[in-house]
Amino acid sequence: MSDQSRRKFIKHIGSTAALLGIGRLAAMGEVPTLLQPGQRVAANDKIRIACVGMGIMGFGDVQTAIKVPGVEFVGAADLYDGHLTRVKEVFGPQVYTTRDYRELLKRKDIDAIIVATPDHWHDTIAIEAMESGKAVYCEKPMVQQIAEGHRIIATQQRTKAVFQVGSQRVSSIALAEARKRYQAGEIGRLNVVEARMDRHSALGAWQYSIPPDASPATIDFDTFLKDTAKVPFDPVRFFRWRNYQAYGTGIPGDLFVHLISGLHFITGSSGPVSIYASGNLVQWKDGRDVPDTVVAIFDYPETKAHPSFQMTLRVNFADGSGGGEYTRLIGTEGVLQLGWNDFSIKKHKLPEAPGYGGWDTFNTFPQIQQDKFVQQYNAQYGASQRKGEESSQSFAAPKGYDDRLEHFANFFESMRTGKPVIEDATFGLRAAGPALVANESYFGKKLIQWDPEKMVIKKS
């Protein structure tokens, strides 16, 4: 890294540290990697990465990862030749490309693998990569099936490989600050969490573009299918795989998992104990076999980390208002509303005195009883006891802040120093598991009991 690049990097992390109040976060052991100005990367201290699956997430992940000093992109695998051509156009002709991801695992000069494939391939590639001695950054949801998650956990524990799930939100400095405020009791006792992530566009509903040259000659469709049902070549299934149960995890796996990850990070929760989901296919009747509207209710039990509460998640791809999103943690004294790298807290703390009049039985009393009531009320409650507390505050990350860059920096720091990753395989399954169960509840039309510690569906 040049002196100019290093100075720019240190200037960035220094300004971020000033914004946060670095001492307070350091005391909690939560300082994100980019907030450590003493760290340096030697010129020969390279981490060489490769990516399997060069679609939207693959390109985005690689472009972010190589912004971290000391990281070099050297290899890519994808089943569509056009993606591999684009890799060389964007990252240079020196990048090794192949259809067969196993060729990347054989290379000794590759230190880490990004898994950004369709969901049904996550477990196989992640496990083989760890067994090949590679660190793994696996896109969310970590797995398509619950059993696959347990195999990934077992492989990581056996190989001791560095493994991180790619729900980047948990590395955000905004979520770290939100967790601090929540744990300080600023919203009182948590009782309800509600979140929605609504859209109204073809691309938002996963109707992604299909290249004109898509054909059996340019796409290895049989390998894409893996162990799913054999079907004739279909570029729609290949490029819009999120729309099919065989390859993706639908709305819960793609979007609920973000919301669940953030909630678990803030509250320290291991997960819900019961899940029920309902929904419909309203607008995007394009051959997909997953709904475009899903609402799910998750019941969280009381634990040492948090009180019992209920969470409701909704995603609607047919939102005629144009879409929008929020996540609210609602407590007895306030509400914490999350953006992506920002949040606000609005407090409404009740006064000790209950008040009287208005929509109240007081007005139905005879006048003499009203007078006596007021006299007793004034004797019991002073002026300070009649005032509640209303306030609002907000927090936002610096302009241009990138939580995905932070997440990758944490991953690479773990590779270099042995520091635990922020989102390991167990955290990943505790976030993905409830989302996958929501799918099972939707298709089975039933309430499902979940064991958040053992991460299994309870037998009825």
From TrEMBL:
Q: Record's superkingdom?
A: Bacteria
A Pfam family matched in the record: GFO_IDH_MocA
Annotated GFO/IDH/MocA-like oxidoreductase domain ranges read: 239-336
Task: Please list the residue ranges annotated as the Gfo/Idh/MocA-like oxidoreductase N-terminal domain.
Answer: 47-166
Q: Looking at the keywords, is Oxidoreductase present?
A: yes
Q: Does the record bear Oxidoreductase in its keywords?
A: yes
Alphabetized Gene3D superfamilies for the sequence: Dihydrodipicolinate Reductase, domain 2, NAD(P)-binding Rossmann-like Domain
UniProt KW keywords: Oxidoreductase
Q: Could you tell me what this protein is called? A: Gfo/Idh/MocA family oxidoreductase
The species this protein belongs to is Chitinophaga nivalis
